[in-house]
Amino acid sequence: MAAVTAVTRWRLLLVLSTAALGAAGAPQPPNILLLLMDDMGWGDLGVYGEPSRETPNLDRMAAEGMLFPNFYTANPLCSPSRAALLTGRLPIRNGFYTTSGHARNAYTPQEIVGGIPDSERLLPELLKEAGYVSKIVGKWHLGHRPQFHPLKHGFDEWFGSPNCHFGPYDNRARPNIPVYRDWEMVGRYYEEFPINLKTGEANLTQIYLQEALDFIRRQQAARRPFFLYWAVDATHAPVYASKPFLGTSQRGRYGDAVREIDDSVGKILHSLQDLGIAESTFVFFTSDNGAALISAPKQGGSNGPFLCGKQTTFEGGMREPAVAWWPGRIPAGQVSHQLGSIMDLFTTSLSLAGLEPPRDRAIDGLSLLPAMLQGQLMDSVHHFGLRPWRGGENLCPVTSRAKALEPDPSHVPLCTGILCVRSHFLSSFRSLSLCSDKMSVPGCCDRMGVLKWPIFYYRGNTLMAVTLGQYKAHFWTWTNSWEEFRQGIDFCPGQNVSGVTTHTQEEHTRLPLIFHLGRDPGERFPLSFASTEYLDALRRITPVVRQHQEALIPGQPQLNVCNQAVMNWAPPGCEKLGKCLTPPESVPEKCSWPH
Amino acid sequence: MAAVTAVTRWRLLLVLSTAALGAAGAPQPPNILLLLMDDMGWGDLGVYGEPSRETPNLDRMAAEGMLFPNFYTANPLCSPSRAALLTGRLPIRNGFYTTSGHARNAYTPQEIVGGIPDSERLLPELLKEAGYVSKIVGKWHLGHRPQFHPLKHGFDEWFGSPNCHFGPYDNRARPNIPVYRDWEMVGRYYEEFPINLKTGEANLTQIYLQEALDFIRRQQAARRPFFLYWAVDATHAPVYASKPFLGTSQRGRYGDAVREIDDSVGKILHSLQDLGIAESTFVFFTSDNGAALISAPKQGGSNGPFLCGKQTTFEGGMREPAVAWWPGRIPAGQVSHQLGSIMDLFTTSLSLAGLEPPRDRAIDGLSLLPAMLQGQLMDSVHHFGLRPWRGGENLCPVTSRAKALEPDPSHVPLCTGILCVRSHFLSSFRSLSLCSDKMSVPGCCDRMGVLKWPIFYYRGNTLMAVTLGQYKAHFWTWTNSWEEFRQGIDFCPGQNVSGVTTHTQEEHTRLPLIFHLGRDPGERFPLSFASTEYLDALRRITPVVRQHQEALIPGQPQLNVCNQAVMNWAPPGCEKLGKCLTPPESVPEKCSWPH
Question: How far does the signal peptide extend, from start to end residue (chains A, B) (predicted)?
């Protein structure tokens, strides 16, 4: 079979998939529903091994859909991850990073001056081209100054807040965070939208649930394809739950919040079924970063067997629970070992809408659609079992992340089942060469038929680590400073891997620490530098990293400058509510990012 | 409703359950199949969150059966746990412990002089009374001298070995471990039964599988109820797998062994279905102790989110994967949060056979049958979800462990669904008083309707810890000595909880370290001594421990004396094979148990 044929067949499959997406009689692309959690960890769901197993609805979602145990966020912190999800680009490209110090995490508090640049093209903006109506429910976190408003970046509706629900503030030194409906604020946290820090009671998840159900109903009635981005934040400290859920979890208040979210997800999925649009709605559940172990156990979740949590570039900081659900399209009860990224949701969503990702910039997301739909080509499989390797048309996901490797992404591997193909291309396929080993071609598919794309782990503008296939290489290791650690700020409580969970920034760029994540998901046993396995892994990883770094054009960093004057003193609509506050004098300062 | 009525009703349910057990037309008790793993950890199954998810058959077994996430072994080491399983009694009672040092683990190597005492009544011996034919396939580990032979303790057939598959030995300083068929050896490991330590290849799991299938077929043909104890050891270092499985796991050789066992379990369950006896066979899968992290990552498994592993009394050492399967009887896809113990399999098996546990001794196992069967009284539930609290006849397991608390087990709680009952009884129910709070009665059922029985954690004759409900109290903490630790013997690699994972024996008997295992399954955050929660938990735990210790009559310790002369030099049958070796002079010595 000629290589060109493989490519043609690949494109054909994509075209067929896209063409067949509309419901019978209505050539309409599927609805897209992204459920994004806040600081929820990989280990927080029953299906991911949480011992209390209090997530029956999410577990059922997994049983009816596809589980991605190797799914990653783009950053161990909330706001850069969210920017990455909506742009399909690493924070280092879209500007959600800082250059204020070496390897520093940064996010979007209300004194931040930056936000999502106009030059970035966000998912809802692109989906408009295919007729989608888009709503964000919950936390935006891509900037709160007027130019960053979500309705200026493609969303048609918004109910939620621009920043984290920290507080309560005194409205003199700091204003409480506003809650918006569309263009205008409708109140503030701790004021019109109470959160009882003592009891943990807040009604917000219920409000966010109703906002979602209402939006879905309206779009279904209008027969418009919709994109709903449901970004709830009850599992971010201070965690909260509404009264019926408070005190109901074996896991304490954090578990109460998880249970309420689980219940809400169940209601959302049921509503899709009741409205008859489950089979025309793609749903994906994931989280923005690992569980915040610094808030555990009372206000933080679980990262299961993984090392450390939020703020770190160990697996616990960046590996996320991930479930895809699309009855009738994504086969039930499957597990995909494809390395996936939150940025893939950008490209996957565009694929669903029949759209191409922007061609004028590097895009880091690839479409997971083939990985999700290829199961249809296979025998029906056991629940939660291993997806067996099958030959034939067992296509691996491809293309989009390759484009991110411009200008010279040579030797990017493609996989077409029993054929493994190395492609050399710039903006499109240029030449292809076949390799015949069907089972385990280095740098190509692994024996499960999973394509090896890299996952990059950044802190600020420092590439801390990369994962390729089962191998993860750390170029820098750091949790936080001794100074912070001695004050009780611990991102890895109870965990201590000598020379790995370090409190000084340790450089390993010349001889990275490499772990095999299959044998050692907890990153406890670095491979011996002298082993053949180490040298083989390094040989494969090195060119991928070099390529990435050589081609990288960092965006303008958005998270360097802070200013008390830009806080939410007088958001639009404050006049109507009589809730405008007077900002202090404008004093731009360098933000402080201690870790 | 009078208290007596509740008891009567309870007994009635038991009687009904037992009476209804036989297949239609055949008043025969169900077959019992216990699948006992060796050093497999809680986190090793896909359904328990192992990221590679390579156990489709075990995961399906869970989906078709009931999962017990809070299931414990009786000791963090293999041979005492196995003795506990077969006697229904803690090692401190049945003699499988040492008094050679404080808080020392001990097991059954081939130089051990002791073994299972004749005075202990083993499960197969008792099941004979109900007409069962019993076979052990795999590791016995209850003593290898003639008087300890499994066929002298109730088993009718044996294929397997008396000790661990360590070796190869030179047959001069130490003999290789024999493999028995029934009364006589048929060869030795590394000789007739090769294990390639370099490649990890061994055919033993396949042999054990065939032994199981053959036994099941024979008993089904003879229409005799059977007890099969399938005690395979491929996941104990040195781990092994047969050729078709070697190199197939993402987890390395340990994963290869798991995959082969998973495949074998699938074949065993299928055979039950093919033979039409699935609905008359109770199957339970668990492991003897936590994963041996000292052998990780190449030869050791995963304890998921739990602390440390084998040899320790932290959760990683004693919490086990556990799945019950009995199509048509145990409802599918359920989770039971009942605290369960490997010793409960003894009492549960007797209940299945319509037998009572021995009345002349303390029995630590309770019957899990009501917990397993009560699901039938409930609505069908979601897969892998939380079992919802239901009122009515939602009975909690009861009786047997209460008896173990003699002579004065007052205030042992019973639970009958929405009624919570405190009973005061000696050898039988004496008086009962009702308490009306249906949701969360201290010391009684928790809000999930799960009865709170204690789990005791011993090292040697030292009570290290106890778990009651969600609370675990450590009276002693120790991993191993500094001396061993500095030599690289690490039972908690990558984990370090200050003041908890200690290398000196730390006494906390007056003020135990208490953890809430729901919020903090990893035992990282001890409760504050000053908190109300701590004091409440201590108040509930203290009388349970006092009662246990006051009533305890330790058995004669079997694991104190070692002697090179008692090793497997000349097992029965060696003459026929020409494989008798000459033992050295008999020199009894105190065994060395360093940790």
Answer: 1-25
Q: Is B78 part of any known ligand binding site? A: yes
- Edge-first strand listing for the sheet containing B319-320: B319-320, B71-72, B340-341
For the record, the structure tokens of A318 come out as 């960046």
CA dist list (Å): B523 to A104, A303, B307, B501, B520: 30, 14, 6, 10, 6
> Do the chains contact at B53 and A495, CB–CB below 8 Å?
no
Select the residue of A494, A520, A524 nearest B524 (Cβ to Cβ). A494
The verdict on whether omega for the bond into residue A397 sits within 30 degrees of 0, i.e. cis, is: no
Beta bridge partners of A325: A283
Tell me the C-alpha distance between B205 and B202, whole Å.
Answer: 8
What are the domain boundaries of chain B?
A: 30-319, 462-551
β-pairing verdict for B471-474 and B462-468 = antiparallel
CA distance B400 to B408: 14
Could B384 and A59 be called an inter-chain contact, meaning their C-beta atoms sit closer than 8 Å? yes
Strands A133-138 and A476-477: unpaired
Q: Which residue of B has its CA nearest to A302?
A: B305
Place of tokens 């699938």: B266
Distance CA B343, CA B338 (A): 14
C-alpha dihedral, A241 to A247 to A248 to A252, nearest 10°: 90
Handedness of CA A386, A387, A388, A389 (dihedral sign): negative
pTM (2 decimals)? 0.88
Report d(CA A445, CA B36) in Å as an integer: 36
Q: Active site includes A141? A: yes
What is residue A370's predicted lDDT score, i.e. its pLDDT? 84
Of B48, B59, B518, the CB nearest to A252: B518
- The model's pLDDT over B96-143, given as tens digits with 9 standing for 90+, comes to 999 999 999 999 999 999 999 999 999 999 999 999 999 999 999 999
What distance lies between CA A321 and its chain's CA centroid?
10
On whether any CB of chain A is under 8 Å from the CB of B47, the answer is yes
Please classify residue A173 by burial: count the beta carbons closer than 10 Å to its beta carbon, then call 0-12 exposed, 13-18 middle and 19+ buried: exposed
- What is the per-residue pLDDT across B392-448, written as a single tens digit (0 to 9) for each? 222 333 333 333 333 233 333 334 332 233 222 222 222 222 222 322 333 444 444
Q: Which fold has domain B462-551?
A: Arylsulfatase, C-terminal domain (3.30.1120)
The pLDDT confidence band at residue B370, using thresholds 50, 70 and 90, is: confident
Residue that has been written with the tokens 């709503």 in this structure = A135
Distance (Å, whole) CA B63 – CA A382: 10
Point out the residues of B that are catalytic: 78, 141
Place of tokens 């969360």: B440
The ipTM (two decimal places) reads 0.87
Gap between the Cα atoms of B150 and A525, Å rounded: 40
Q: Give the distance, in angstroms, between the CA of residue B270 and the centroid of all CA atoms in the same chain.
A: 24
Q: Which residue has the tokens 């294990």?
A: B195
Cβ A84 vs Cβ A439: under 8 Å: no
**How many CB atoms lie under 10 A from the CB of residue A428?**
10
- Backbone φ and ψ of A590, nearest 5°: -75, 130
CA distance A467 to B253: 22
Which residues are within 8 A (CB) of B8 and not within 5 positions of it... i.e. 6 or more apart?
none
Q: Regarding the domain with residue range A30-319, which homologous superfamily does it belong to in the CATH classification?
A: Alkaline Phosphatase, subunit A (3.40.720.10)
Length of chain B, please? 595
Could you tell me the two tokens for B146?
A: 């003639």
CB A58 within 8 A of CB A265: yes
Neighbouring residues of B249: CB distance < 8 A, sequence distance ≥ 6 = A518, B52, B54, B255, B256, B258, B259
pLDDT at B188 over 90: yes
Largest CA-CA distance found in chain B, in angstroms, rounded:
71
Closest CA to B49 of B306, B385, B317, B304: B304
Closest CA to A41 of A270, A294, A243: A294
